[in-house]
Protein 1
Amino acid sequence: MTALGKVYLIGAGPGAVDLITMRGARLLGEAEVVLYDALVTPEMLALCAQATLISVGKRSGQRSTAQTVINQQLVECARRYQRVVRLKGGDPMLFGRADEELRALEAEGIEVEVVPGVTTALAAAAATKQPLTRRGIARSVAFFTSSTAPGEPDHPALPATDTLVQYMGGREAAATAARLLAEGRRPDLPVVVVENCSRADQRIVRLTLTGLANGLDDAQGPVLVMIGEALQQRPQQAS
Amino acid sequence: MTALGKVYLIGAGPGAVDLITMRGARLLGEAEVVLYDALVTPEMLALCAQATLISVGKRSGQRSTAQTVINQQLVECARRYQRVVRLKGGDPMLFGRADEELRALEAEGIEVEVVPGVTTALAAAAATKQPLTRRGIARSVAFFTSSTAPGEPDHPALPATDTLVQYMGGREAAATAARLLAEGRRPDLPVVVVENCSRADQRIVRLTLTGLANGLDDAQGPVLVMIGEALQQRPQQAS
């Protein structure tokens, strides 16, 4: 019986192929098999053209592989291959279901290494040139999602940070804005929405909290919503 | 008169040279001049050996270049060079004083591009294999710092998120823990402290909220403090 392989949980970053880390790119090039999410692009998969590719795409509103099935696939790959990569959009440790995959692998005694990635919020801040913190104005940032798990309340309290970033915020963002208005945040608080962050079809929309409460146009791709005084456009900022 | 150069604000990531993005590494290799922080390592500066290197190191407790001086240096570099890189530890848009640099450059009509980086919190989550979110347990994360700016209150409210991450948390973390206990968080809430994240001398300490309130040993390097139920070590987790 051969030794169990090692599994690398790697953050692909926000989408653009060159926003993966050098370490992530090197390990992709050495992988025997790569299990990848729906949001990973063909350009990025070209970095691991030598590997067997397995799509385990999860994307809201579309059929996807159940998490328990993904966990089992990872275990089976580690039995068959020495170098297994699980490639996740953004960073694996933030809204990535990594806890479940780590537990499944650890239960079988399989070695795991985690390689961090650029999380979409920071790529969106870069793309819009809007720092999420600002001296004297914004010194705390919260990342959250409204996706619910079984047994969780639908609407836990919103974080009371200076800057708020809602991941997977397309449909839920209007409700977030309405709740922030009800909590007393000011109606003209700046909001920046980024769709398909860092990709060729990236779209940036600037509005206010009131505008966000009125709802977003239907987005086709993943949407990130940034809210707070730090998102105020600067006087001489280009676009 | 020659045209003004372009300035790239680039996130170096947490420290390890191969945790910079491929885009960041490429732009470093093309730079004529690089202005870098104290936390950027010599190994990373080897990626821009062709460039003029200017240290503008800022590190708490040590003498450093004032922000207004850095702003002025950036403007002067963009007048003399076509490709200027401002290399910052972690990600430039999170606790990076980017707002001030962007304003100074925009006021002179200088073009700026921002390249995101792996922020230290996510590298610490990877190094400790502790996801910051966990289905059903932790769905919001706050990043904050206690560093104060002139005119700010010393102790704004702590974010009421499931997971809290305090940057530059060495001296301030005990006070944070005491305040969280006073707010009713449970005494045995898991805490993970990471010093010199991703570097050869990385140090990981696991404790509880009560333990953190009792104070940390003196750290030599930058310290990141992660607090919350998501930081609970898994039964079969190695180290």
Protein 2
Amino acid sequence: METLKREVCDANLKLVEYGLVILTWGNVSALSEDGKFVVIKPSGVDYSSMCPEQMVVTDLSGTVVEGELRPSSDLLTHLELYRSFAGVGAVVHTHSPYATARAQAELDLPCYGTTHADSFYGAIPCTRHLTKQEVDQAYEANTGLVIAETFRHRKLDPMAIPGVLVCKHGPFSWGINCKKAVENALILEETARMALITTQFSPQAEPAPQYLLDKHYFRKHGANAYYGQN
Amino acid sequence: METLKREVCDANLKLVEYGLVILTWGNVSALSEDGKFVVIKPSGVDYSSMCPEQMVVTDLSGTVVEGELRPSSDLLTHLELYRSFAGVGAVVHTHSPYATARAQAELDLPCYGTTHADSFYGAIPCTRHLTKQEVDQAYEANTGLVIAETFRHRKLDPMAIPGVLVCKHGPFSWGINCKKAVENALILEETARMALITTQFSPQAEPAPQYLLDKHYFRKHGANAYYGQN
Amino acid sequence: METLKREVCDANLKLVEYGLVILTWGNVSALSEDGKFVVIKPSGVDYSSMCPEQMVVTDLSGTVVEGELRPSSDLLTHLELYRSFAGVGAVVHTHSPYATARAQAELDLPCYGTTHADSFYGAIPCTRHLTKQEVDQAYEANTGLVIAETFRHRKLDPMAIPGVLVCKHGPFSWGINCKKAVENALILEETARMALITTQFSPQAEPAPQYLLDKHYFRKHGANAYYGQN
Amino acid sequence: METLKREVCDANLKLVEYGLVILTWGNVSALSEDGKFVVIKPSGVDYSSMCPEQMVVTDLSGTVVEGELRPSSDLLTHLELYRSFAGVGAVVHTHSPYATARAQAELDLPCYGTTHADSFYGAIPCTRHLTKQEVDQAYEANTGLVIAETFRHRKLDPMAIPGVLVCKHGPFSWGINCKKAVENALILEETARMALITTQFSPQAEPAPQYLLDKHYFRKHGANAYYGQN
């Protein structure tokens, strides 16, 4: 658990290094190897003094089992994602500006080119609004449930599209581990930024053709991947 | 008073670190605990050599009681805000680009999502123009009075909306102390930037629903807050 | 002259620090106190290894009187500005992105607010195109002459509007010394950026009223200035 | 070959320093002086730990002759460019945001001013789409062939326009050596950014006149160049 605490702490600091987070506007969690515990950033703690010992350990119901601080207020969203999406080992939430603005615009993020296709196999969905009742009764858990609903209804594979825009809120991303989940947060932000610039250059810009998306995504993922050293 | 001078000096330097200020384009002041004195940045001094000893202490009428340098030219605006807004312990003025541009556009800043709602309980107002007479006779004091008028006329709570856009000029923000006032300056800039990107993605973007604004604001503020460690 | 060489060298490096210049895309020169010589950056030299000894000294006709390197290719433009604009002690040229883009758009830069008004007393002009003949025969000198013509025809005071956009090329700025000329280059870039954001927020944005421009400009300049410590 | 490995490694790191690359989104290669070998970045390796020893050496058919790691997945594109474009000593590929977005918008990049004209003698072309067959059969080699086709069909000189936008993908640039190829990648990104800002200021912005393009390009290139120290 100490190793995982360090990983989660480092991943939170990486968000700052990547320029995805200011103040205390982000959080990372990770699932223990046995799938029984979650390590998450404490709520509202300054990044400048953050250390592994401050990380909070909870079980999957959200009960704190280790740590002196209160867990991130978004904990229940993270837990719903671990429950709903098999294979997810880490979850990231930020308010990075372009992805957040796209969520505020209530629009999916189309795949305009290979930069997006290398990491997300198709458009990144924007959820529906949460209802007043969903917000009032169990806001954080319902945020996770609405994310899961979005993927289920649209028949999307969360491991092939490892991120989402929560309507009027901002991005969540995930991956098999902290490193991948944080990278996906960065890629989501960068592709949102490039998407805006693309449509500013050409309001009629079209998504990339399916065969190019296939080529780039499967060059890096799956059995026939030939990118990287593995 | 020496502690407060250091706080005010540090807060001014924080504006540079946050990228909110270039050259000498910003100032921070704070109110002493007894409410009788204000500590403020000197006028037109380079941030690179700024030190606590240079901070200027005045009474609430603006008379310098300590310090060798002339106080910030915006002193009288700050003083009006302390007089008008109970609970304000520090005031910040910057020319940060997005907030300033929004002020130049003469438009309120709507709340498009939770990033804004976490810290500002609703749209951030843009003041009316100062009249020629107001500018010619007592420009800085009248700037403060027009800010106060804006909150009074619109029945806004300055502690729930801790910032304003002064028409054709730029942002002022405030808080219970220097740290909060500076954070609000950063959040005002960041939400202005996100608001622009939001409407660039979707010119028809709508403000967040009231129930989401309520949820996020009161998750962090007031008796039922559950964000952070307090 | 050694002092002036150091000043000119430092000013060139400041352009990099301010983010106004990449690669070798800028140059600063200064006039000697007796008005007989100009110290200017050498042409195409890397900023990373730039030192005061490399600065080139010329007379006002452009003849090199000291230095082993070729002077900046824009030397003759600088010389025309010293000849035409009394009181100018230093000249700066950059390709900073927003000011350059405004020059490429062939549009004056209106004064949308106090940030601009604090340093430039009104709209910053964009010159006419140079003709083919002007470009072919004496490009750099004619660039200077067209800048001077712009100020003369529009009856602008170059010390009150210490910068210009050269059509399809980019910004030049100036001041009584290197420090001021470089600051004006930064302010020109920042106001160009803010002007774009302003019109993106509101395509109908209007310039600031004359009385606000008067107030801010004369708060910092002239006999009745009360900004800063002098 | 050890010298060239160091040059290629340094050039890859320069992409990060210039802000043109995040994660592993770029690659640089160089041709050996005898024209028989290519040194290229390994695939998917972190920039933070990159060292000259990791660089991969291949012959012009793409067979690895030195190095333990797999070469960049874009190797075959680089090789096609060395085969097609005489005089090219180094090739760079990035996903820099503005150039990539322009490629996603499927539009050439016009020359709006002297910043562009100083380094690229006219509009930077955007290729046609690769067909499904071209993507499926030999994607990377065909990318190089389509770039070559673009220059051949439009009768463009690749040494005068040392860069291209690959439709829906991103920019490639080149030069006589690594330093020039990397500089051209930076200039391509910066001119793409300035082009967007130019048209945001003025949607009707026109390209620079041919005589200004001639002046600036030939001031820095060819027999009559007078920029720099050579």
